[in-house]
Structures are given as C-alpha cells and as structure tokens.
C-alpha cells in the first residue's frame, strides 16, 4: 500500500521543534525528507527547564546517554517539586516522584497510612517516599531496580537549560539528515479545495513544500492559529494567571535535587537549580498584581546576582480545540498553554510526538486517525488542567486572589475526584492521565484535603501488624535515601558540565 508521507516540514525550532526533528528523524522510515525552518531573528520562550520522569524515556528512545546530555545542558537531577506556602502561609510539602510506600494486597499504601493516622499514629506520608527522603537530605544516585530485589521506589527527572537542550537535539537531528533552513515565513500556501497546507513561502523568494507540517511556532501559532484559524478553548476562568517574569541568577548555595514553587500574593515563583546557574520566574495574575510588583518580588527573592533583565511573557491558559487540523499538527505553545506549575510543558511536546508516531498518517490523512489524536490529546490536557486547578483551589491563604480561587466552581471532572478522595481516600486514574495516583495523593494531602475515612480492607491488619507495616515502609525509604551521596558530589563524579554562566 503506497501513499507514504515522504516530506515533513517543521516550522519553528526551540525545544519543541528540535524535539520533533530529533524524534522523527530516528523513528520515521527512510526515505523521508525532514526540513526544519527557523529564524535566528525570532526568539524562543525557553523557560521550560524542569521536567518529569517520562523525559528519560524520550531521551532513551533517541539513544541519548544521560551523562552526556546533562554535561551538554548544565543539567541536574530532580526528585520532585517542593511547594512552599500553597496550602497556607508557612506550609510546605513535596510532590515527590516515585512510590509512596508499598501496597499490601489490593490496596495502595496510603489507605493503611490513613488508618494509622486515624488511630493516632504520627508517621508522615512522605516518610515512606524514597524520593522525598533523598530530596530532604539533598542526596541523589541512580538506583535501578534489580530482579528479585524489592523495588526501590525511585524515579527522577532533570533540570536543564532549554536553549542548550534544543541545541543538543539539533546536533542529533542534523546528524540523521534533518535539513535546517534559516528564514522567515511570508505566506502559507494552501490547497483551495481541501484547505491543506502545501508550501511555506519564505523571505528571499524561496518556497518549501511538504506533505505533513508541524507547527512549533510558539504563541504565534502561525499554521494552526493564523493560517487554519483553529479554535482555542480559553481556560483562564480556572487558571487566571496570565503573565510571567523570568530571570536567571548566579548559582548559590547547595545544588538541590528538586524544583521549588513558592506561593505569592497573586501567583507563584519558581526556582530551578542548574549546575551553572539558577532559573527563576514569577507567574502572576495581572488583574491582582502589577508588573512592577511582580518584578520587585522576583528580584528581591533571588539566591544570587541576576544574570539578565527579567523577561516578561504574556499568555492565556487553554488549548487548541484540534491540535491536529488537516495536515498540520501543533506542538508546544502553538497547541496551547498550561503554566509550568507541574513541569508539564516539555512533556506535552513529548506526548504529542509519541501520539503522532502512533497515529502517523499516509498522504490521505484519514479522519479517523486525526480524530483519535485529538480525542487523546484533549483527555490528557484536561486531566493536567484539573491537576493544576487543584493546587489553586485547595488553599487556605488569606489574600483576595487565593480566596477567589478557593471559592471558584471547578470543572465537574475535578469536583468528582476531590469528592471521591475526601470521602474515603480513593483515587482513580483514567487511561490518558499523566499524573499517577501518588501525585494526586500528595497534592491533596499536602494542601489540606484529608479524607474522612479509608478503604475498609485496611482494617484486616491488627494494630501490631499495622504498626510493623508502617515501620517497614519508613525504614525502606530511609535505607534507599541513605545509600546515596550528596547530589552535587554525584554530579561532579558523573556529569559535571563545562557550560559557563555566560552561556545561560
């Protein structure tokens, strides 16, 4: 059966464009011409420096050695995200990666922990998390599970310089035949009958033809938005933060193995530790905080000297109703925007690429493939949206912005999750959910949603057995963490970068 796609055009570079180029050049059968068009005159957003564990699968699928990648990007390891002040002023919890204890029978650990707490026990939920224990001690090591041995419960991701990651992937992609074209798009040529994009007219009287086009043009959304006018679903009624300031600063203090998110009066501040610098930013709602106030808060709270002037980003939370429209697939910011509260920006590029590979079209572009792509994309985005809304909604902060967020009506899908958990600690995971049961558990408990009960099967242990079970899980987490060296020492021994602060 013929009709294979033989030419792919990626419009836009940056992280999204070069991730797509690197992945497709490795996975799409030859001969398929892949062309990436970008202009050095157009900047990239480039603040997506924190990731979640699936990024390891993406890099591994490209045959990328982890240490080489970290050296090239100034990267460090990430065991989770610490949330300061989100539940209430002065509160703190971590959304740690990996496992929270080990289940028993058909039940996950947390039901036994809920019974332990209900009966006056004092063990903390995160006492049973190896990643939380290691993060708290500023430790890291790669602990892989071995056959026959108890699962470690470990998982990790990375912090890295997004611009350097894009450059790293560009080298991988060009080595496999991707052709980069420097230029700006002056016109999008379309078939008058189907509306499909046929070619991009560039400055200098040049034209690049293609069969499948991938829009990685960021907020501009030149193909999916301007050319095809694909509708955008606005989610700002639930996620009203619409601006961010980003600035790097000199690295100072310990090299921590976690991202930090600190709640502010009308938004939140991120801190992302790299080897050669620290990434910082403040996400805020412009109706509740002025640009000057945001800049003052951000600059006063840096750990080290700023390395640039804060750069402002303006956005609206939401997504394209169809991330794949006709023969255009949108990735990254062209497909929509969710603030980087849970480090999902780069992952959504990754999952979009994986979905495209799974449903890769022939030249006929069967509507069933396109509809499946869009259904799955919508389900994933909406589940992530709900997870982010949960952070804002479950709070006891006093500021007007936060009181409004606590009082707002949330999507029915999120309301149902909260009600189910609040009753008896139950968490259900849907097929396209990115975040695990352990992730939902940590945010709900961390921000003050304590279930009234627990699964009745947790009562099958007597008091002594329950105490022993809780103690064993705490001891396992402590043992795993204790095996690890200091995070900075591990990096120095395995993947120290040569990148200097001037390259940030």
TrEMBL record:
FAD binds at residues 13-16, 185, 333. InterPro entries: FAD/NAD-bd_sf, Flavin-dep_Halogenase_NPB, Flavin_halogenase, Trp_halogen. SUPFAM superfamilies: FAD/NAD(P)-binding domain (SSF51905). It holds the Pfam family Trp_halogenase. L-tryptophan binds at residues 342, 346. GO terms for molecular function: monooxygenase activity; nucleotide binding. The active site is at residue 78. Keywords: FAD, Flavoprotein, Nucleotide-binding. 7-chloro-L-tryptophan binds at residue 78. This is Tryptophan halogenase.
